[in-house]
Amino acid sequence: MSTARTALETEEHQALRAAVAALGKRYGRDYMTTVIREGKHTDELWAEAAKLGYLGVNLPEEYGGGGGGMAELSIVLEELGAAGSPLLMMIVSPAICGTVIARFGKEEQKRTWLPGLADGSLTMAFGITEPDAGSNSHRITTTARRDGDDWVLTGRKVFVSGVDIADATLIVGRTEDARSGKLKPCLFIVPREAPGFGRNQIDMELHAPEKQFELVLDDVRLPADALVGDEDAGLLQLFAGLNPERIMTAAFGIGMGRFALSRAVEYARTRQVWKDPIGAHQAIAHPLATAHIDLELSRLMMQKAARLYDEGDDIGAGEAANMAKYAAGEACVKAVDQAVHTLGGNGLTREYGLASLITASRVARIAPVSREMILNYVSHQSLGLPKSY
User: What is the pLDDT of residues 127-181, one digit of tens each?
Assistant: First the structure.
């Protein structure tokens, strides 16, 4: 399938894209479906991607990373997804947690975590969503109080990916501002085996190697150095992680959409019912062409968001990252739906690997923030319209 993306990318980015695509092709959708069916994790692909330097491509070189940014990391996830084997924990471990620690962590935290996050030997989950807060992060009730030199965390989190395989979870809690008395967000590294840190797996219809968990923090006692960065810079640090999360979710959706579209195009090119292949009929060809256009447009916005973020423009990156996530989520769902429809009954078989994507494609619409909340963001921040809440 021809693409116009290379003209906008450096030779280094093109080489990275080609190399990751080759890795993804060696694993592919069959690998992913086997891992899911057997209840395993993507350990082999994760280890090889790490060994080749792809997992830590965005992290600082002095801590074992590749010295790149979100532009490079998003290429890795997109190409693995386009091969049918995306690594969801890339969104969480190197993109969110690695970025936050690299930008705001104390030197000891950087030395402790970044080399392992870069080489794949350590992983970190991210807990922000709560059962009663949903998309309203101002309603987060997980609180952290000081007790001598320690912090004590109490609260609940939900829909936290990969806690069972993560060495620690970066938890968004709230501390009381001594001056105003108001609660403000702060980030804490909570080791997996910390006393009082409980987890329950959520029974999901979504079939993926990465499981979802509800977390209970029952007076989890942490040392002072579990706090990431400055206690007074909570929102800045939080959004330093959320913008990469949106960029990477866009990459996840674009990769999945490309995989589905490539399966549909191959089928439409070869499937012959009447005189010509079905792809010769405009009723089949035009929707696939539209899906391709939408995916390409989504990538452009993702590339803009990644560049702005890597250049340090957090405000500009916030707008672009939200738009990219919205566009990619919509493009992914439409590409998957059209691919399944193109294959007809075959689109629902295990052989072609598309039916499971009907559910999986909704992830980019729903997480980490719903499309409706992104529309709220654009309405308020970009257009200056009044808030309804």
Answer: 999 988 766 767 788 999 999 999 999 999 999 999 999 999 999 998 876 556 5
- CA gap 302, 307 in Å, rounded: 9
CA distance 241 to 275: 54
Whose structure tokens read 């330093």? Answer: 240
Task: Give, in order, the Cα–Cα distances in Å from 144 to each of 32, 77, 185, 303.
Answer: 39, 34, 10, 37
User: Rounded to an integer, what distance in angstroms lies between the CA atom of residue 66 and that of residue 19?
Assistant: 15
What residue spans of the chain are helical by DSSP H? 11-37, 43-51, 70-82, 89-90, 99-104, 107-119, 234-270, 282-310, 314-343, 357-360, 363-366, 371-377
Query: Whose structure tokens read 């640090």?
Result: 237
43-51 vs 107-119: helix axis angle to the nearest 10?
110
368: preceding bond cis by omega (within 30 degrees): yes
3 state SS of 86: coil
* Angle, CA of 330, 336 and 340, to the nearest 5°: 145
For strand 197-201 and strand 212-222, is the pairing parallel, antiparallel, or unpaired?
A: antiparallel
Shortest CA distance to 86 belongs to which of 369, 360, 365, 321?
360
Residue 2 has pLDDT above 50, yes or no: no
Residue partners of 326: CB distance under 8 A and separation at least 6? 371, 374, 375, 378
Longest dimension (CA), the chain: 80
